[in-house]
Amino acid sequence: MNLPENLKPTPLAPLYGEGVVEWMDVFGFAIPVTWGDQAAEYRAIREDVAVIEFSMLLKYDVTGPGAADCVNRVFSRDVTAMKPGRVAYGVVVSAEGHMIDDCTVFYHGPERVMVMGANPRLGADLAAAAGPAATVRECRADYAQVSVQGPKSRALLQALTEVDLSNQALPYYAFFTNAPIAGIPMQISRLGFTGELGYELLLPAAATPRLWSALREAGQPLGLRPVGAAGLMTARIEAGLIMGGLEYDEQSTPWECRMGWAVDLSKPDFQGKAALIASKANPARTVVSLAFPEGSERLDGAELTVAGRAVGQISMAVPSPALQGQMLALARIVPDFAATGTAVSAAGVAGTVVGMPVHDPERRRTRG
Predict the structure, then answer these.
(1) What is the per-residue pLDDT for 5?
(2) DSSP 3-state assignment of 188?
(3) Strand partners, 344
(4) Average pLDDT, stretch 197-210?
(5) pLDDT class for 1, splitting at 50, 70, 90?
(6) 166 partner at 20 to 30 Å CA-CA among 22, 89, 284, 349?
(7) CB-side neighbour CA atoms (13 Å) of 68
(8) CB atoms inside a 10 Å sphere around CB 175
(9) CA 86, 87, 91, 95: dihedral to nearest 10 degrees?
């Protein structure tokens, strides 16, 4: 395995063989950028089925009589109103109302809730909110987290289980526990980061080789490919999905990164609520999609201007198949300049604010 020195392997990394041509560091783990054909990896997401690993994400298992109350004290949505087997996507903010993490909450019941995110501050805040009636344990090392995405993802997984994976049985933002996939009991959820139909599998790390072998065998006639960060970033930017450190930082509010919809101000209280009420009316930034001519360069991190005035900054730009090869960027911008059709400039190149997302604006594929 051609793993870079000083980076830790994920559960899937030893199974990739020598095919990875570029790696990147994500939280100290080696994550594939590409197997050398980014276009084919992208097509697997949009047309067939892709396997993408997220084992590097932090996983907090909150257990005990006070588990739901613990998470509810910090999470922006009402955990106590959830039903077992449901998933909520939302945010955790600081006492000042600034973004700590966008995270996913899996509600097993009042005495067990799992929270997945990327910022270790999330764990510290959960621990501080736990009190004597809940225990918070970070359990990333116990699990492999494998995302199976694309229009043929259901067909692939259904071939490996007798559990009903139909939209009626397992709708978007729902999960099963102890569901056997290829004979391996695991948690399977209807989630993804691609804008496509997809599932996330959470299984014991030791069982990863069995799962990988089964996926490859059953997925071969369906066009299955492992997909790295490059293909994933193209898909997520087309789908208008945000990332910490790019579309927001620890000075951003949820109102400034398109996460305001996930803030439930009707909850009696949660960490940062008072600050969020105060900041709601005057966001300094918002996130938009921008289109630039095909082949435009030096856009990542570039300052945005309108008539010579600095109005924002691009977070990331990629060539977009959904826009016939134009460069597509996500950017943080002053709200006054966020309207679709606004002309902007970055790195000496003229661009335009376009509707977000550019791929499947009504998210029918994700929910279908």
Answers:
(1) 85
(2) strand
(3) 351
(4) 98
(5) low
(6) 89
(7) 15
(8) 22
(9) 40
Number of Cβ atoms within 10 Å of the Cβ of 94: 16
Tokens of 132: 């004597």
In 39-192 the beta strands, taken as DSSP E runs, fall at: 50-53, 58-63, 86-93, 99-109, 112-117, 135-138, 143-149, 175-181, 184-189
Bridge partners of 313?
Answer: 303, 332
So what's the pLDDT on residue 311?
A: 98
pLDDT of residue 71: 98
The model carries a pTM of: 0.97
Nearest to 300 by CA among 258, 333, 328: 328
Asked if the peptide bond before residue 357 counts as cis, ω within 30 degrees of 0, the response is yes
What number of H helices and E strands is found in the chain?
8, 19
246: left (phi over 0), alpha (psi -120 to 50) or beta: alpha
Q: Which is more confident, 18 or 327?
A: 327
Q: Where are the alpha helices (DSSP H) in the chain?
A: 38-47, 67-74, 120-130, 153-158, 208-219, 229-238, 273-279, 364-367
